Amino acid sequence: MSKGHPIGATGLAQCTELTWHLRGQAGNRQVNNAKLALQHNVGLGGAVVVTLYGI
């Protein structure tokens, strides 16, 4: 239900959640008919990552 905000692990958790949605494995959080997913994460020192996933 919660993981806090561990340095480095937040981006990986986002990646995992988006992959589950695209695979139809997100349980009660599932977005129906997901074909694209966008990840945006801002880290320490101003590092920014934007990733687009698709099936």
TrEMBL record:
Record InterPro entries: Thiolase-like, Thiolase_C_2
Q: Which residues form the Thiolase C-terminal domain?
A: 1-45
Q: Which domain of life is it from?
A: Bacteria
- List, alphabetically, the SUPFAM superfamilies matched: Thiolase-like
Instruction: Indicate what this protein is called per its UniProt record.
Output: Thiolase C-terminal domain-containing protein
